[in-house]
Amino acid sequence: MKIIKAKDYDEMSRKAANLIAAQIYVKPDCVLGLATGSTPIGTYKELVAKYEMGDLDFSEVTTVNLDEYKGITKENDQSYYYFMNDNLFSHVNINKEKTFLPDGTEPDSDKACNAYNEIIHSVGGQDLQLLGLGHNGHIGFNEPASEFPLETHCVDLTESTIKANQRFFASYDDVPKQAYTMGIKTIMQAKKVLVVVSGEDKADIVQKAFFGPVTPEVPASVLQLHPDCTVVADAAALSKVNM
User: Fold this and answer.
1) 138 in catalytic set
2) Which residue of 36, 77, 163, 190 has the fewest CB atoms within a 10 Å radius of its CB?
3) Is 135 annotated as catalytic?
4) Class of 2-190+206-234 per CATH?
């Protein structure tokens, strides 16, 4: 595992975007695994800026997103489909027919998950998987558990995750309680993994996930075993680590 220290959120975003851009330069038809949440927004802004300057071409890129809320439509402004279009897809020359997310409108969990697994397999898996890091160590919506889940599955969101997401919704009752997410096996099969982490509130989990024991109780800890994982974190997130 390689850890890159950035002085602040903006530098973290630039460094992460540079790594993603490098992947596209090396393999223009690459498959990018993408993440949502507040942390990657700056990275997407940097990628859009590179595209607008003529430095980046998304025309051959395929994307597969980590997750989507169950029971939420694409038109809902809190869906991850909406998020990706708002923060990246609508601002670059990507072919939207090659951008994939789990189908949150499919009520049959097995059907939705199997369909998404087939999509990921059909595109050959992720050349680079972008991840954020949850306060409890979740990656995607893989919550702390007694074992590492494998492929795409439906997860009951924990109370801490629901509360963390509440700020995006009108009320607690409006927050989806389930989501479809890539499993740990699918994430670990990506050729490269890039984790972005920012803020002092993530310092404890950074220490546990990347410098503690590998355990499904801290899902992100499994990334220590990935052969090509890079963490880009700002100084605040690394404040409890000796570097």
Assistant:
1) yes
2) 77
3) no
4) alpha beta
